[in-house]
Structures are given as structure tokens and as C-alpha cells.
Amino acid sequence: MPAAGHRTTLQEYVTSEWQDKGQNDGLAAVIMAIADGSCRVQQQVRQAALADVLGTTGEINVQGEIVERLDKASSDIFVETLSQSGHVAAIGCEEIEKPVIVEGDVADGYIVLMDPLDGSSNIDVAVSIGSIFGIWLKRPGETVNDDSLLRPGNQQVAATYVVYGSSTVLVLATKNKVSGFTLDPESGAFALTHPNIKIPAECAYYSTNEGNNKVLDKPTQKAITLLRDKYSQRYVGSLVADFHRNLLKGGIFAYPADQNRKDGRLRLMYEANPLGFVAEQAGGAASTGYERIMDIVPQQLHQRTPLILGNKDVVEETVSVIKAG
Ligand code: AHM
Ligand code: MG
User: Fold this and answer.
1) Where are the strands (E) in the chain, listed by range?
2) Around 29, how many Cα atoms within 13 Å sit in the side-chain half-sphere?
3) Does 3.30.200.20 match the CATH number of domain 205-324?
4) In the chain, fewer beta carbons within 10 Å around the N or the C end?
């Protein structure tokens, strides 16, 4: 029996949730691989300039964006921990053009799609950033190939993200259950601090890049004006941090399509699907403005999508204003 005052660790949580019941050994290993990787990433994030890890690599990634050195380091770390977990069949990564197919494919292999370091523009300025993961179970008997990664969000078995903020917090979502864990820097373990997270019914905040207002279409401008009239604005510019605040405090995040970004800015497979899954399991919603994010059948690994994410009622109201035209 755990000592009084003992907080359940992430390892104990996944063991009691799944392994003790003889279920999902593989998923527990995948989650712990993400936790181990995020401990290494957060060390680099916290050391920042001291460890000479800031600045760019000089490369442009498949998204056409400048690669920060910490983007590359995080991608390498998670590819390593996930590949070595023994339960990951393939990895899709925002920073890597083609899927990483893991050798020694196992029967209960998982497919992980990740944004290894979200909030690139905030890396060098000590503002919260994070890592995002969507997790699918490969189909029975399937030999994975590049197309195996093109699965809709509604088939995710779990999603998780880590925020490297004033503390390091890992949020894990499985069907109808979202739990948050805080990294204890002394022990190096994640401890359960936010059991059974539900988005508060009341919406406190809206998060959007107001600088894009002039390039929105009229219905979307109208929807954003309604949000502005009702709620306080909070926008960090790291989706994972903006979403985490809105999940705990109640809020809506919107990065709609606009004249310059006809398909939106954010990535379906690495950002919208995992955070949409977390939102739905916590009682929230995720939409493009026209359809549920989870129902999109992906055509390309790196495809972009408009994203409206957060409190269910407010997402639905926003979508209805956009759809009304
Ligand atoms: P990244 O994955 O390369 O960091 O880009 C995604 C980020 C999101 O975290 C954030 O919501 C958005 O880009 C901010 O974009 P903008 O600077 O246009 O507001
Ligand atoms: Mg990102």
C-alpha cells in the first residue's frame, strides 16, 4: 500500500489502469517512452542557452519552416525512446518528411504521430512550449507501411501532451478519462496531480491570433467578434500551452482558415487530432468550422487543418456562426 501522502506516479497509474488487468502492456510502454523522452527534452528546454541548444539548425523542414535546434533534438529523442519501447510499429513526425517504420515490428504495435516540440517561435524566449502525441493501435495482422499512418482521429486509442512551462505537466487521455501529472524534478517521476480532468462548463478565455483578423472571411470574423465580446483573450502562441490553459480553466482556441492559409495553419495529424481527442474525452469538442476534426479521413501525413477547439458549447456556437455564412 502506498505511504500516506504518496501521489500515484505515472508508472503506477498505467500499471493499475491496464497492466494489472492484463490489458495494454504495449500502451503502458509507449506512454512511459513518451514520459522518459519528455524528461530529457525538458532538461534541454530548462538549460536552454546554458547548454548551447538554442537557435536554428539552418535547415527548412517539410512544412517549409525553419528548424530550431531544439525541434531537431526533441524529434531525435522521441524517435529513440519510442523505437526502443518495443511496442511502436511506426512514427510520424512533424519534423520528418517520411514515416519512421520501426524494425522488429510487434503484433500489438502502436502508431504514434507527434509534434515533438510545439511552439517553435517561443523556444528561444523562455515561453511555454510542449510535445504532442496521437496514438493508434495498428490493425490486426497489418504489416505497416507509409499508408498505415493515415488514420482518422476517431481511431486513436490515446493521446498525450507535455507542457514545458513553469512546471512540466503531462496530460494523458484515454476513452472518457483525462489525467494530468506533474514532473517532480527531484525524483524525475511524473505524479498524478490532476485526476479526471473535465473542461469547466464556463468558458473563461478565447485564444486566437488577432493579427490575422483582417484576412479572415466575413463569417469567421463575425464568429471571432462574438468571442471577443464575451471572453478574455489569452494567446501564448504555443498551441499546446494555450490548449492546456483552456482545458483547465475553460476556453476556446481558434486558428481558422484565412486568405493566406486556405487550409489553416496547424497540422491535422500532429496537433489537431491528438488535442481534439483530449478535448473530447474531457467533454469538449474540436472542429474545422465545418466538420468534426476526429472524422477527417487524412489524405497526407503533413496536411494542415483549420482548428476550433475547446468548450463544447462555445465550439458549437462558433461553428454555427461560421456555417451560417
Ligand atoms: P510549430 O509546431 O512549428 O511550433 O507551429 C505551430 C504553432 C502553434 O503552437 C501555435 O498555435 C501557432 O503555431 C502559432 O501561430 P501564429 O504565430 O501564426 O499565431
Ligand atoms: Mg506545433
Assistant:
1) 56-60, 66-68, 88-93, 100-101, 110-118, 129-137, 158-164, 168-174, 177-184, 189-194, 205-207, 232-233, 251-255, 266-267, 285-287, 304-305, 307-310
2) 18
3) no
4) N
Which ligand 1 atom minimizes the distance to the CA of 242? 11
pLDDT of residue 244: 98
175 alpha carbon to ligand 2 midpoint, in Å?
A: 24
Between CA 107 and CA 157 the distance in angstroms is: 16
Cα of 96 vs centre of ligand 2, distance in Å, is 13
- pLDDT tens for 287-320 read 999 999 999 999 999 999 999 999 999 999 999 9
Question: For residue 227, is pLDDT > 90?
Answer: yes
Query: Which pLDDT band, with edges at 50, 70 and 90, does 61 fall under?
Result: confident
Tell me the pLDDT tens digit for each residue of 99-128.
Answer: 999 987 676 799 999 999 999 899 889 999
Task: Give the three-state DSSP class for 66.
Answer: strand
CATH, range 10-194: 3.30.540.10
List the domain boundaries for the chain: 10-194, 205-324
Q: Among the atoms of ligand 1, which is closest to the Cα of residue 209?
A: 19
Phi (first) and psi of residue 88, to 5 degrees: -115, 125
pLDDT at residue 58, rounded to an integer: 83
Residue 86: count of CB within 10 angstroms of its CB:
15
Give this prediction's pTM: 0.96
Neighbours of 324 (CB within 10 A): 9
CA distance 185 to 187: 6
Contact call for residues 318 and 227 (beta carbons, < 8 A):
yes
Determine the Cα–Cα distance for residues 189 and 170; give it in Å rounded to an integer.
11
Which residues are registered as beta bridge partners of 100?
Answer: 91
What's the CA-to-centroid distance between 237 and ligand 1, angstroms? Answer: 6
Give me the chain's average pLDDT, please. Answer: 94
Residue whose C-alpha cell is 493508434: 136
